[in-house]
Specification:
Elements lengths: L3 H16 L11 E7 L5 E6 L10 E6 L7 E6 L3 E7 L2 E6 L4 E4 L5 E4 L15 E2 L1 E2 L11 E5 L9 E5 L2 E6 L15 E7 L6 E6 L3 E4 L7 E2 L10 E8 L2 E8 L2 E7 L7 E6 L1
Parallel strand pairs: 10-14
Antiparallel strand pairs: 1-2, 2-3, 3-4, 5-6, 6-7, 7-8, 9-11, 11-12, 12-13, 14-15, 15-16, 16-17, 18-19, 19-20, 20-21
Length: about 270
């Protein structure tokens, strides 16, 4: 695998040429929408404008080389960034409306009107797939998927899949749950990959869950993501390291763990 440092340096140059206005001020506030790291120091950030009447959609891509402490905007887009990932030595960025940006093996960025690589997980018929944040080569790794059933008043059936095998299940009401995930809250996405047992589920109107055994059992972290106070935006894993974007009162913060979710610290705040 190519060095993340080399990739990011090449990508930053290519993105600056592509954008024509890298680092220029934006007339509209952009909020973090997705994050992915190729190492514990180098990562990519997606940003998106708010959804509101009269707002013009826009987005941006940022990069860091110090673990997320500082970010530099390197390209702006005319669509919101909805997902970012790292796959086979390149970045993949999904834009609202099926557009995408992606890098080839040389680090050069390309635009496309077609959808990017799928950030949607595998779910059986009748289940809604959430985001699968960590893109994997399915010939090597088993993908993680979070699936949800019909929502109720704060409650929802949930299932975690590794490939096509269900490894955890929570009914909305009745039935026998397995895996430790509560029925309260609405799951948005799941992160996990690189052949590691560490995974993260983030929710809106719920909490944060981590697994250390490949998704078979999950631990709730209400002290990290406080239900009804914090809302999960995106998460990504890298071995035993994890990065999570949380939103509270329209302010976003990036938190990280290096011990599979046992301890967390705030890396950056957007106000």
């Amino acid at each position: 695998m190519r060095s993340g440092v080399v990739l990011l340096l090449v990508s930053a140059i290519a993105l600056s040429v592509l954008s024509g206005a890298a680092g220029s001020p934006s007339s509209q506030r952009l909020a973090p929408s997705a994050v992915a790291f190729v190492s514990r120091t180098h990562g990519i950030l997606g940003l998106a404008s708010p959804h509101c009447t009269g707002c013009v959609a826009s987005g941006a891509i940022g990069m860091t080389s110090d673990g997320g402490t500082t970010w530099r905007v390197v390209v702006r887009t005319h669509r919101r960034v909805v997902a970012v990932g790292y796959y086979k030595d390149g970045y993949d960025v999904s834009l609202e409306g099926h557009g995408s940006l992606w890098t080839d093996e040389s680090g050069r960025w390309h635009r496309s009107s077609k959808p990017s690589l799928s950030f949607r997980g595998y779910c059986p018929k009748g289940w809604k797939p959430g985001y699968s944040a960590d893109l994997v080569d399915t010939n090597i790794d088993t993908p993680w998927s979070i699936c949800s059933g019909m929502p109720g008043v704060g409650l929802q059936a949930k299932a975690v899949y590794r490939g096509t095998t269900r490894v955890a299940y929570t009914p909305a009401a009745g039935g026998k749950p397995s895996g430790g995930i509560g029925s309260y809250g609405y799951p948005i996405g799941i992160a996990g990959g690189n052949g590691c047992g560490f995974g993260i589920i983030w929710e809106s109107r719920g909490t944060l869950y981590v697994s250390r055994n490949g998704g078979h059992h999950w631990h709730a972290l209400p002290r990290v993501l406080r239900p009804e106070v914090d809302f999960g935006v995106w998460a990504s894993t890298l071995g035993d390291a994890g990065f999570v974007l949380l939103e509270r009162n329209q302010h976003t913060r990036l938190i990280t763990t290096t011990d599979a979710g046992r301890t967390w610290r705030v890396v950056h705040r957007w106000r």
